[in-house]
Each structure stands twice: as structure tokens, then as C-alpha cells.
Amino acid sequence: MLTNPANNATVTYHEGTQIFTDPVLEYTPGAASAFVVDRHEYLWTSFFREALNTRWETHNGFLNGRRIFHTDFVDGKHFEPGNPDFPELANLSTGLTINNSCVGCHTNNGRGLAPVAGQLPNTMAVKVSSGSTDAQGNALPHAYFGKVLQPQSRNGGVPAEATVNLIYSTINGAFNDGTAYQLLSPNYSVQVLDQAGGQVNFFSPRMAQTIVGLGLLEAIPEATLLQRHDPNDSNGDSISGRAVQVTDTKTGDQRIGRFGWKANIATLEQFTADALHEDIGVSTSMFQGPACGANQTACRNAGPAGIELSDVRVNLVAVYMQALGAPARRPETVNNADVARGEQVFANLGCGGCHTPSMTTDYGHPLAELRGQTIKPYTDLLVHDMGDGLADRLTGNATLNREWRTPALWGLGLTEAVNGHTRLLHDGRARNINEAILWHGGEAAASQSAYKAATAVQRNDLIKFLESL
């Protein structure tokens, strides 16, 4: 029996078999086979659902990848009591790490713990860099600490790198109608534990993102993303989304990035291998050896050398994420009048300029289930300048620091049920949807101003619509 701490609801899971009562299924026209959602006491498991059109061979990969995703790489135990342990994965998490498992950060396949004042939880990653970037604008690693700060070490001869502390200050504001609001502005400080690494001047705290529907986003053709690539706003619409060019780790080819908060990873297989290496301390063929910086000698000498998790198993985790069905809109709210009005407000405020409602996948993805589907993710997968208020400190380039990939909005209304909180944005500073909108600046400044000028009814309708996704 698996119990959700938020409400003590329980559901029985066997590896690959999900037993529910009275499921309510609702399908999105044009992509019926890939979307499923349940409601009531089972909402917290909504991000565990396999896409409904999964073929038998993909289903087997999904189940085996699910087992790896939900297994602790220290003790080999499955996070769901009653599911079999995976002793072959025990003791693979070595050296410097953030967490023990994939699901350890992606709680219930969603976001991690809500950040509160104090030390950041081990469900958040803190990216670091030298301050410089490559030719495509992607951050280059810190010479000593590498790409990510790891706050714990599983090797007594290698010190943990650093912890990050957080305090909030309050920003007071008001809508045009006089209604007051408050935003929480995060202030971070890095406490270096391994003094040999020196100072950390360039860093960016990140919450884990939900992993549902990622296969469908992977199947969107690069040509579609490039159609919206407009870094110089040549069409004069005040939206200058940029397609991020990255190097494919396996082939060395140039690809369009689409995963991660900065869209700096091109495929789910590489997304998987990168997280295993940097966050859990497991090496693969794509990222061999320990997760250390170039000058981190003790860490590099401690090993392990070579490959700990095979390509086959890395691919199984990728298949698991590819075959997870994106949740459909809430069937009990989608036809409500306020939701329908809110959808119109969404359009009127120009939100769809970045949160593109609809896209179509192509026919080139390895999984046939993902091909030729019209989906409604509400993202363009491009990075946009979101203004100084949301800028991080990852590089010495202020423009790049302001850029963030447009997050998909599907499943937004399930955040609280899945994760027990409603924290949003890259570092969880927004306590709810309203605050997330108010943090929008840069290319979204006009939409944010229009939101502040809207009536209380219009603002409420917009949030109701977003909660229905």
C-alpha cells in the first residue's frame, strides 16, 4: 500500500499494475490516446499514469524504467512498499550527491518539496558555473565544483561541496483596482564546505519539474520550434523567444534544447543521464566517472571509474518518461462558465504568445505512440527574457540570466494534490498561480500589466482556467 502523506490516502501498486476504484477518464480531442486523469482521492497519483495508447513492447520498457526511476540507488529499495527491491542498483550512488533516487527529487513524479526559509531541501539542485558561456550561450562549469553543487558526500575522503541558505524579503504591491498583494523575494547565500573550491559567485537554485508529457514534447519537430525562434523580435510583437542550440552528448551534433529550466538538454535520454550523474552520483556512458569539476582532484581520484548504469537501463528510464501520459483538463471544471471566461482572458492578455496552446508532434520519434498527435501543452519550448525580477546568477551575462524556458502548463491544477503545495517558478518563490503571473517581466511585462489592470472577476476567471489544465 502506498500512502500519500498529504491526506493519508492509500492505493495499491504492483510493479506495472495499478489498481484503482471508480476512475474518471477524460480525453483531450485530437490527442485522446495520450491523455488520462483521475480525480478525488487518487489525484495525488495522477502523474504516475501510463499513456493509454502504449504498445506492449513500450509497456514493458515503461514498467522496467518505472522500477529504476523509483528505486533508491543507495539501498536498492523501491519507494513504494510492496514493490520488489532492486539490489543490483544498490550502492551505485557514490561520491558527491544531492539525492538517492529520481523520485526523491520529482516527488510523486511532480515537483519537489516547497522551499522555506533556511537551508534548501535536497529536492532542489543548485546549478553553478564559471560565469562564462560557450558559443551557444550555455553556462560553462565551475572549475572546481563542476555543474551542480552537491551538499552530501558518500565518501569519507571527499568533502561535501556546499549548502545554500535562503531568506525571503517581502515585496508589497497592488492591482490597479487597489487590491493589495505580497510577493516573496528569495535571497540566497552559499556556504562552501570544501574550502579548496574557493568562492561560488555564479549559481542558480532550481526546483524539480513535473515529468508528465515529456515524451510528447520530445516529439515536437525542431522545425516547429524554429518557426517561433525570433531572438530579435523581427515581427514586432514584443516576443523574442529563442531556440537554444546545444551539443548532443551522444553524437556531437547540434540540436535544439527543450528540457530543463534553461532548455539546455535536447533529449530525455540525455536528461536522464545528466541527472543520474550530477544529482545521484551514478555514472553512465554519456557521463562517466564521478561528478567532479576539472580541478577537484580528490573527488576524481575517489572514482568510480567507468560506467555504473548501462545504456539499456538509462534508455528504460527515458522510455518511462516518454510513455507517461500527460493529464487532461479537469472534467469536473472544464465546462464551468468561469473557466470558459478565463480561457478568453488568457488569450486577451497575450499569454499564448509564449504558452502556445497547441502543437503537433511529427513522425520521427522512435516511439510510434508519440507520432502525429495534436497536443495542448501550453509551451513553445523556447527561452524568453523574463525580466530582472526573475534573473538568476548563473553566468556573467545579464541577458542570459533573465532567460527561462516556457514551462508547460498541463497538469498545473494538480500541483497541490500531487505535491502538497502550489509553489511555482524555477525556484518555487511563487506561492500560487497569482504570484507566478505577477513575477512575469521582460517579454511578459505587457501581459503582467494587463493582468494587474484586469478586474478581480477576470483575474479569478483566469486562475480558474489555469487550474483546469
Largest sheet: 3 strands, antiparallel
Please count the helical segments.
Answer: 13
N-to-C span: 29 Å
Rg for CA atoms: 21 Å
Account of the 3D structure:
There is one protein chain. By secondary structure, the protein is an alpha+beta fold. It has one domain. Helices cover 23% and strands 15% of the residues. It is built from 13 helices and 17 strands. It has a three-stranded antiparallel beta sheet, with no helix packed on it. Strand 9 and strand 10 form a beta hairpin.
Give descriptors for this structure.
469 residues; alpha+beta; single chain; 13 helices; 3-stranded antiparallel beta sheet; 23% helix; globular
Please give a quick description of this structure:
The chain is an alpha+beta fold and 469 residues long. It has one domain (2-467). It has helices spanning 56-69, 102-105, 214-218, 222-228, 268-280, 297-302, 311-322, 337-348, 398-401, 415-419, 433-439, 445-453, 456-467; strands at 2-3, 10-14, 17-19, 96-97, 118-119, 124-128, 148-149, 152-153, 162-174, 180-192, 203-207, 245-247, 254-256, 359-360, 374-375, 383-385, 403-405.
What is the strand and helix layout of this fold?
Layout: E1 2-3, E2 10-14, E3 17-19, H1 56-69, E4 96-97, H2 102-105, E5 118-119, E6 124-128, E7 148-149, E8 152-153, E9 162-174, E10 180-192, E11 203-207, H3 214-218, H4 222-228, E12 245-247, E13 254-256, H5 268-280, H6 297-302, H7 311-322, H8 337-348, E14 359-360, E15 374-375, E16 383-385, H9 398-401, E17 403-405, H10 415-419, H11 433-439, H12 445-453, H13 456-467
Antiparallel strand pairs: 1-2, 2-3, 4-8, 5-9, 6-7, 6-11, 9-10, 12-13, 14-15, 16-17
Helix pairs in contact: 1-7, 5-7, 8-13
